[in-house]
Design brief:
InterPro entries: DUF4816
Structural class: mainly beta
Low-confidence stretches: 1-32, 353-359
Pfam families: DUF4816
Number of strands: 5
Number of helices: 1
Mean pLDDT: 82
Shape: rod-shaped
Strand order of the largest sheet: 1-4-3
Order of helices and strands: HEEEEE
Distance between the termini: 34 Å
Keywords: Signal
Radius of gyration: 71 Å
Length: 359
């Protein structure tokens, strides 16, 4: 690298030339007026030129995408209602009936007796007595049972949403850079006072170029993320309840019966006489009593049943939509550049009485 730099510096040094160019040799014509002397030389000029380039532009286009929407639908659900139905039951009523009973009464009779003495004697009589006995009956009791109920709970679900995020991207840009460019060939620099010409070989010049570079940028994109959300659901739970049932029991009732007892009476002895006495007898008699009876009746009860009903719910559905996006396209354009060319022109040399020194 060091030797290349030295060679470039040597090429830029003006080397005196003792040879005259062919263009500087003039021919003397036989005329009254002497033609001007001069020579042809080349000059590097920059000529403008238009070239076709391609530029990157953004164009708004429409892209098909899917959007999540909610649509209403009817869903059949089971709802509880109360339905009336007839169930058999027993009702206790009092019914009047005529019952034949024995009642005591006094009857006058003639009985013999001994006047001398009175002796006691035993006589069998019928006396009423109450006894206890068991009769069947129905008793309402509470028994445990299970009932299915629906309980609302909150359930956590995941729903999708769009979140804007920054993603890295690369963008091509053009930056101006000055570079060195070598110009090959001999270049005229002038003459010294001896008439020697100075030329330079392979000189350098600065050139402005546009260099592509990639710049890191951040663009916004949408990313689908899932967030937690609460949804109300109904779950079935078994709840303990108490229902009423009938159980057969035996209750104690009192019943009237007749028993034979011995009653002490006085009877005469030895002397028999007839006298009027009252004797207790039992005669039949009808008595109105109330008797309880059980009759079957039908009572109305409410029963929980499940019927089908329609409920309006929202269902997730996907809908195709068009979303605008920016698309990079290449479009033609014209760019003005400067192109170096060599132009040939005539240099007139004027002669004076005194020699001019070239500096």
């Amino acid at each position: 690298m060091r030797w290349i730099t030295i060679l470039v510096l040597i090429g830029c040094v003006a080397i005196p030339s003792h040879t005259k160019p062919a263009s500087s040799v003039t021919r003397v014509k036989r005329s009254f007026h002497e033609e001007p002397k001069g020579y042809w030389t080349k000059k590097l000029i920059w000529k403008p030129e238009w070239v076709k380039v391609w530029q990157t532009q953004k164009k708004l286009v429409w892209k098909s995408d899917w959007k999540k929407i909610q649509v209403p639908i009817w869903k059949e659900v089971q709802v509880p209602i109360w339905k009336e139905h007839q169930v058999p039951d027993w009702k206790v009523i009092s019914k009047p009936i005529w019952k034949e009973i024995q009642v005591p009464a006094w009857k006058e009779i003639q009985v013999p007796f001994w006047k001398e003495t009175q002796v006691p004697a035993w006589k069998e009589i019928q006396v009423p007595e109450w006894i206890e006995h068991k009769v069947p009956d129905w008793k309402e009791i509470q028994v445990p049972d299970k009932k299915q109920v629906w309980k609302p709970i909150w359930k956590e679900i995941q729903v999708p949403i769009w979140k804007e995020i920054q993603v890295p991207d690369w963008k091509k840009i053009w930056v101006p850079v000055w570079v060195k460019e070598g110009i090959h060939g001999d270049h005229y620099l002038g003459k010294d006072h001896h008439g020697n010409e100075y030329t330079a070989h392979d000189i350098w010049k600065k050139k402005l170029i546009w260099k592509p570079e990639w710049k890191k940028i951040w663009r916004t994109e949408k990313k689908q993320v899932w967030i937690p959300e609460k949804k109300l659901e109904w779950v079935s739970v078994w709840q303990q309840i108490w229902r009423t049932e009938k159980q057969q029991i035996w209750r104690v009732e009192k019943k009237q019966i007749w028993k034979t007892h011995k009653k002490e009476i006085w009877v005469p002895k030895k002397v028999q006489e007839w006298r009027t006495e009252k004797k207790q007898i039992w005669i039949p008699k009808k008595e109105l009593i109330w008797k309880q009876e059980k009759v079957q009746i039908w009572r109305t009860e409410k029963k929980e049943v499940w019927v089908t009903d329609k409920k309006l719910i929202w269902k997730d559905d996907w809908k195709q939509i068009s979303v605008p996006i920016w698309k990079e396209i290449q479009v033609p354009a014209w760019k003005k550049i400067w192109k170096p060319i060599w132009q040939k022109f005539w240099v007139t040399v004027h002669h004076h009485d005194h020699h001019e020194e070239w500096r």
